[in-house]
Amino acid sequence: MDQTEEIFKNLYKVFSQYPKPDRVFGSPISVNEGDDLPLVSKHLKYLTYEDFGSYPFKSMSTWGTEENFMYFLPRMLELSFYGFGLLDGSIFFSKILSAGWEDWNSEQKEAFDSYLRAMWNDATQYPYLDSFRLKTLIENLSYFIDDLDELVHAWAKRWIEAEDEETFEKLVAYLDRNWVDVFFKNKPHYAFLDAILESSLHERLESAFFKYEKSKPQFATQLSRCEEKLSYYLANFT
């Protein structure tokens, strides 16, 4: 069993104190009669995206109780691990807060913390493939993790200092697409910027432009844009 499977197994164990509901009733204005039947028709671990339907978006507000939400939480977390299939990013984390995260016991918080860190590690392996998930994590994990600045800085530092060409190209593409977040967003985005300012990335961008100007013109254009943005920041904000 790999580490991620262990994390999911622990989530089910920690939240197993919440009983399976016979029914999950909601407001007749937003929940149709029988909408809850797929939720209670199977064992928790076998529920699918389709079974949940719109429940994650309406949970606790117009559909079901906090106890219901806590029962379903392990499966929703498992299904949402590699993205936000059940919930978009803002709702994903706001629902956790609405479920009284601050008052969870230490075992529950530790299980959720392990889950978030595993999600962070997965998202930062290939950040250019799912920048939305990474951006959402950067903007929301500070509600739950005290050392997010350190995590962002360490990740950025590893990426910036990687020497292989492919990783460097992915970094340039990421900075080119997300430069507003990296250069001008507040905490914890500045942890990424700090890693840039501590590095020799500016010089590397300049030298790489001349190296790839003719052989990789599209990449050279990205390099030029990133160098210009970094030069502008250095000239006006440091």
Question: What's a quick, concise take on this entry?
Answer:
The protein is mainly alpha-helical and about 240 residues long.
How would you portray this structure in words?
The protein is an all-alpha fold and about 240 residues long. It contains 14 helices and no strands. Helix 9 runs parallel beside helix 12 and helix 13 runs antiparallel to helix 14. The termini are far apart. About 25% of the residues are buried. The mean pLDDT is about 95.
Main features:
64% helix; elongated; mainly alpha; single chain; 14 helices; 238 residues
Query: How is the main sheet built?
Result: none
Shape: elongated
Radius of gyration: 22 Å
Count of spatially separate domains = 2
Helix percent reads 55-70%
Total strand segments: 0
Give the SSE map.
Layout lengths: L2 H12 L22 H4 L8 H4 L2 H4 L7 H14 L9 H10 L7 H20 L5 H10 L7 H14 L3 H13 L1 H6 L5 H8 L3 H12 L4 H21 L1
Helix pairs in contact: 1-7, 9-12, 10-14, 13-14
